[in-house]
Amino acid sequence: MAANLSTRVEHPGEPLGLSDERLLDMYRLVTLARAIDERMWILNRAGRTPFVISGQGHEGAQVGITMALRPGHDWIAPYYRSITTCLTFGMTPRDLMLGQYARATDPSSGGRQMPAHYGHPQHHILSVSSPVATQILHAVGIALAAKIRGTGQVVMTFMGEGSSNQGDAHEALNFAAIHHLPVVFIVENNGYAISVPSAKELSLPDVAARAAGYGIPGVVVDGSDVLGCYAAAREAVDRARSGGGPTLIEAKVTRLTGHSSDDQQTTYRSAEELRSERARDSLPRFRTQLVEAGLLTPEVEASIAAAVKAAVEDATDFAESQPDPDPATATWWLYAEDGPAGWVPPWAGGPPTAAGYREVASPDGQASEGGPERGGRV
Q1: CA atoms within 13 A of residue 251's CA, in its CB half-sphere
Q2: For helices 226-241 and 59-66, what crossing angle results, to 10°?
Q3: I need a surface site. Which of 188, 240, 268, 321 has the fewest CB within 10 A?
Q4: In terms of C-beta density within 10 A (0-12 exposed, 13-18 middle, 19 or more buried), how is residue 15 classed?
Q5: pLDDT single digits (tens) 340-366
Q6: Do residues 66 and 230 lie in contact, with contact meaning Cβ atoms separated by under 8 Å?
């Protein structure tokens, strides 16, 4: 049977070892993610960006769960709703907005993937791939490497409940359980796989109940309870890091928007349902918790709001100012092409245009028109 965890105390951070500063940073990240998400929708509706797939309603679970990891040491394999996860793990608002605009310097893919395909190798964030659930297998591979190398790293991978029904998820869970790998599986269950309700996806109410079939712990947590999510994740991460193997955590969250900017959820969700789901939003709940604890004073809240607004404006303006990918480089970096040390992708600091590479490749600027020469290592 899956366990249910929740944390409700007068001073919320004390039993979890979370300082006041850490709690306020978690709140800042939740509000920042919501503001970035809302700006993405505005840009899409204004015709400035092509696509949005939202994380609104998932922010509290993501920040609570991801805070249990060690950024820069551990790894995450996110999915397309992981805005808050990626911010918590080191990506910046500029990084996210560069991907939204598909700019040449987008750290996720240099504008080569569609929006919401987050990734950042310097922060140990594995790139999202369009086929859902593939990241789960990749996470298990990273966890196997970490165990073999003895690095003490933990890998965390994220998915929706729809992805949990893919064969990739079963293979990953089974392999990780057999080999006691340091990986934590997170299912963010918002009740819908696009327009299909969970009752038509699952034969049981909880995805976490499947953990028993693999002989690993399964935990259900209220996704609107930020600190309950942190507590569940910290226990799972400690277990993984100490050699105890994987855990399957299911965070029950709400989806406050359509599946994406191409979806109209009012065609399959009633107005009453949409109103009631607003009560499960983690942002106002976490705010109330911190206000009642005396941590989020009006002055502190105003300061966070101003900083968030400035960060969103800066990220938008910065992404607007950056160049698009050069079509001449469209087929580059698909294979292990070799050439001079200057042949680094624009998202890793290289020039944003093919002409820029020709200038750095040789003193006379006569680089191959086809891109980097083959035979070495990028």
Answers
A1: 36
A2: 30
A3: 321
A4: exposed
A5: 455 778 888 888 888 877 665 554 544
A6: no
Token pair of 187, please? Answer: 């299912």
Domain boundaries, the chain: 3-320, 326-378
Nearest to 28 by CA among 306, 263, 292: 306
How far is Cα 240 from Cα 244, in angstroms, rounded to an integer?
A: 5
Cα–Cα distance between 264 and 276 in angstroms, integer? 18
| Catalytically annotated residues | 255, 259, 268
Whole-angstrom Cα distance, residue 356 to residue 299?
Answer: 48
Would you say 161 and 81 are in contact if contact means Cβ atoms under 8 Å apart?
A: no
Whole-angstrom distance, CA of residue 219 vs CA of residue 261: 31
Residue 35 Cα to chain centre, angstroms = 16
Q: State residue 337's pLDDT score.
A: 59
The CATH-assigned architecture of domain 3-320 is 3-Layer(aba) Sandwich (3.40)
Straight-line distance from the first to the last Cα atom of the chain, in angstroms, rounded to the nearest whole number: 49
Instruction: Write out pLDDT tens, residues 205-225.
Output: 999 999 999 999 999 999 999
Give the pTM: 0.91
Q: Which two tokens stand for residue 190?
A: 């918002």
Strand 196-197 versus strand 218-222 pairing type:
unpaired
Our CA angle for 236, 238, 239, nearest 5°, is 65
Q: Which own/partner pairs from 336-341 qualify as long-range (CB within 8 Å, at least 24 positions apart)?
A: 336/377, 336/378, 337/371, 337/372, 337/373, 337/374, 337/378, 338/372, 338/373, 338/374, 338/375, 338/376, 338/377, 338/378, 339/367, 339/368, 339/371, 339/372, 339/373, 339/376, 339/378, 340/372
d(CA 366, CA 375): 18
What are the counts of helices (DSSP H) followed by strands (DSSP E) for the chain? Answer: 11, 8
Pairing mode, if any, of strands 75-77 and 155-160?
Answer: parallel
Place of tokens 């160049």: 323
Instruction: Please list the ranges in the chain whose pLDDT falls under 50.
Output: 1, 6-9, 339-340, 363, 365-369, 371-378
Average pLDDT, the chain: 91
